[in-house]
Amino acid sequence: MKISRFILFLLLIMLPLCFGGCSEEPSIQKYKVSKTPLPSSYESGLTPNSKGEVVDTGLPFTWVVPAGWEPGKASSMRLASYIIPLSTGETGDFSLVRLGGAAGGVLANINRWRGQIGLADAEIEEVAEFSHMHTTAQGKQFLHATLINEANPDRAILGAIFEEAEFLLFAKLNASAAGVEEANESFEAFCNSINFK
User: Fold this and answer.
1) DSSP E strands: which ranges in the chain?
2) In sequence order, which ranges of the chain are alpha helices (DSSP H)?
3) How many folded domains does the chain comprise?
4) What's the whole-model pTM score?
5) Domain of 188, in residue numbers
6) pLDDT in tens, the chain (197 residues)
7) Rounded CA gap, 82 and 70, in Å?
8) Which alpha helices (DSSP H) does 43-130 contain, by range?
9) Is residue 58 part of a domain?
């Protein structure tokens, strides 16, 4: 009988512990989610190649590096970074960045770029004045924007925004007004080459 009482005693202690967490009331769950690490090919700070070959780093998309583009220094935000030599002697700075969700929306990001070159925010009705929709070879549409600060022609941006279900992909090239005009064709070639898996 002593064993039975001991088992009963254990059951009485264990039952509240077993069923205490089975409440029907909703509870807040907390999880730690780490940042997605960059592919190992970027640990050196260099982009894999600049020979016009398809670059596949394990991301959900690939791209082709235009001829003449040189590897640039990567950062924690940049998935790819290139330097574009221009005939004027200056260089363009290209970056490819992915942000989760809607990332604030297309207009907010265009206005962020505008602010970077000293332009005032644009209203949604004005976006068509400096951008257009473009379609890649794969058939994906993206917004292609050309932003030039007429008061300071040393500051201009070519930008492209790809909207996917789970993220926005941003391609951006910083240069002078003359530089973005010269680099526009290769910038579009890069964007056209992006292939979503």
Assistant:
1) 54-55, 61-64, 70-71, 78-85, 91-100, 131-135, 141-148, 156-163, 167-175, 195-196
2) 2-19, 106-116, 177-193
3) 1
4) 0.72
5) 41-196
6) 444 454 444 444 444 444 444 444 444 433 333 333 333 333 333 344 445 678 988 899 999 999 999 999 878 899 999 999 999 899 999 999 998 866 667 899 999 999 999 999 999 999 999 999 999 988 999 999 999 999 999 999 999 999 988 889 999 999 999 999 999 999 999 999 999 98
7) 5
8) 106-116
9) yes
